[in-house]
Amino acid sequence: MGYLRRQAVIAALTANALRPPRGFRAGIPAFAAGWFSSELAPHLLTLSAVDTALHVARKGSPRSRAGLALAAVSTLGIARLIKGSRGVNDVAEKALVEGLGVDYVDQLDAPPSPADLRRPWRQVVNPFDFHTEGIRVVRNIPYTDAGRRGMLDIWMPRETPVDAPVLLQVHGGGWAIGSKDDQGKPLMSLMASKGWICVAINYRLAPRNPWPAHIIDVKRAIAWIREHIGEYGGDPRYLAITGGSAGGHLTALAALTPNDPQFQPGFEEADTHVEAAVPFYGVYDWAGSTGLRNATDMRDSFLAPRIVQKTWQEAPEVYEAASPILRITPDAPDFFVLHGEYDTLVSVDQARLFVEKLKATSKHSVVYAELPGAQHAFEVFHSTRSASAVRAVSRYLNWHWNTWRHGLPVDADVSPEEISTPVAQPATD
After folding, report:
1. Same domain for 72 and 215?
2. Catalytic residue among 343, 347, 349, 388
3. Which residue out of 376, 383, 388, 394 is catalytically annotated?
4. Active-site annotation holder among 85, 245, 347, 388
5. Which residue among 245, 382, 404, 425 is least packed, with the fewest CB closer than 10 Å?
6. 260-284: buried (b, 16+ CB within 10 Å) or exposed (e) per residue?
7. Is-catalytic flag, 343?
8. Is 106 noted as a catalytic residue in this protein?
9. What is the predicted pLDDT for the residue at 35?
């Protein structure tokens, strides 16, 4: 491939990341083309610069002027991508202040600092390096009898803690693919280094296992944690839940349906409530109740044939029961919702409407961070945007755990003086 063609590809990837096409069908290829170029914009810029430098050194043909022009335009576009990703920390911090109160930072173990956003060079060079000193992972613990799909991993400090807070991670993948090994690693690595116990689960997948097998397994995992997490140093009384995409849907639905016997066949008496929920780029409207085209297209062209295996007309009650936006009550737990502005797989409008109804209905705190320029799955691997988003979630969870463990109301009116000296946590990297 010649220089002009290579620069044309980089320019196309940059344009797609800056302004991806809308619509459920166009969104899939737009995501596939834009995900890496959006999150790895510095790497893309380096690639373009090296390619241009080598081309100039070889004294390219007159046709290369067009390639040089494309490279210049791409550089401006990539610089805009990088600037947008660098601004995520301010956006997320503003969301936390608006949702929790300006004094929420006084309730943290330590106030945030610029050092919190620094990333090790190995993560910059290799965004898929999830090695973190001071933590260990206990793998493939069965929590159901579903074989590989019924196993979980526990991410924890190397030295077993005592009564540590617990975070349940639910992977995405369209309810049909994915595993506990694929997602949530930046967040789990960080939280485990701060003394948390993180539980990453597999669950049964469609089409082999149609809905509601997925949410039943999430509920079983919650019940397992309540019964067994003390053996690993976790506090079974405190459980937060997180996940992205389909995992974001399952996170929100599990949080909004505590102890619902419909989703707990055979273990109806188990306690499946959670204290807080942090869904990333979740699907909140299975039923199409919002009227959003993205929701109805997903329902009719994907959920019906592959996941539910019944149409909306055949079983509207199934879709309504599975829609988090229709399950909101005043008793909804505390939520921190994150979504990308340019998500082409799940429209950001779903998150906006979900949060709007949460704020109007729930008695508890609601935080919403809409990340500028972000695509779907923006926190799966290390990036500038991922670092900011994950650390914002870390601050939120730390704030929530501190207020909860001291028996204080989880709202913006807690006086910092009411927080006692934090319990010592294992040292971080």
Report:
1. no
2. 343
3. 376
4. 245
5. 425
6. beebbeeeeeeebebbbbbbbbbbb
7. yes
8. no
9. 83
